[in-house]
């Protein structure tokens, strides 16, 4: 029990840890609003307020996050040419997402003209969607490479420790793919609104998949 509490403290000390917790609040409240809207309007109103407050607080907490893309590019000098290209597009999309998310937040809290919100939301979501496509491609390539390396090691009959590392890395990458696909669906709801992506259940489940996959990846080992 003490170990779990210690890990929770470490998890919540991280920026990403807080973000995944508040993201859970955001999408649980979205599902609660959808479920209660017809029969319990007062409860639905409170759930909607919780959802909006959670979403806005996440945007404020992510201030300056777009700069992490530059560090990600700097940290991979030895990457293959293909990976360098994929990384540039992935991180560029993410930087657009986080940069314009600042203006979206400011317009929604009234610091900027509220009419800017829709335009900023579209640009931010478009960059987000583009970034996720390339991040997923990178993870799938690495999963395929890991499977090939694992087969070679298993044929050799030793290096169990290396096989274990490859399997652990594969789980983390599958969590990343799950989160990015879920967030891609959420981004599509802004880029190209449609009945499936914009349905409260689709958005709610996608948000929770993303939050909990991120929770798993950031949980202290």
Low-confidence stretches: none
H and E order: HHHHHHHH
Q: What's the overall geometry? A: globular
What's the average pLDDT? 91
Number of helices: 8
Q: Tell me the distance between the termini.
A: 15 Å
- Counting structural domains, the number is 1
Radius of gyration: 19 Å
| Largest beta-sheet details | none
Total beta strand runs: 0
Structural class, by secondary structure, is: mainly alpha
In helices, the fraction of residues equals over 70%
Strand content: under 5%
Describe the structure.
The chain is mainly α and 221 residues long. It has one domain (2-218). It has helices at residues 2-13, 15-36, 41-61, 68-74, 81-108, 116-156, 160-191, 200-218. The chain is globular, with a radius of gyration of 19 Å. The model has no long low-confidence stretch (mean pLDDT 91).
Write the layout of secondary structure elements.
Elements: H1 2-13, H2 15-36, H3 41-61, H4 68-74, H5 81-108, H6 116-156, H7 160-191, H8 200-218
Task: Write a brief structural summary.
GO terms for molecular function: identical protein binding. Helix content is about 80%, strand content about 0%. It is mainly alpha-helical and about 220 residues long.
């Amino acid at each position: 029990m003490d170990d779990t509490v210690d890990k929770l403290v470490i998890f919540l000390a991280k920026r990403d840890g807080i973000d995944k917790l508040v993201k859970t609040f955001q999408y649980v409240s979205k599902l609660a609003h959808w479920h209660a809207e017809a029969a319990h309007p007062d409860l639905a109103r409170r759930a909607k307020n919780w959802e909006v407050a959670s979403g806005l607080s996440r945007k404020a907490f992510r201030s300056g996050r777009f700069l992490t893309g530059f560090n990600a590019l700097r940290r991979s000098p030895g990457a293959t040419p293909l990976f360098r290209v994929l990384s540039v597009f992935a991180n560029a999309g993410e930087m657009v997402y986080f940069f314009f998310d600042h203006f979206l937040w400011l317009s929604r809290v009234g610091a900027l003209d509220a009419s800017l919100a829709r335009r900023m939301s579209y640009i931010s979501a478009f960059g987000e969607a583009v970034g996720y496509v390339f991040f997923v491609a990178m993870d799938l390539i690495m999963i395929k490479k890991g499977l090939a390396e694992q087969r070679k090691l298993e044929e050799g009959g030793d290096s169990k420790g290396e096989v274990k590392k490859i399997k652990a890395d594969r789980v983390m990458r599958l969590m990343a793919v799950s989160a990015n696909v879920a967030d891609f669906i959420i981004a599509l709801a802004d880029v190209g609104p449609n009945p499936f992506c914009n349905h409260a259940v689709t958005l709610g489940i996608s948000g929770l998949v993303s939050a909990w996959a991120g929770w798993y990846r950031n949980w202290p080992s």
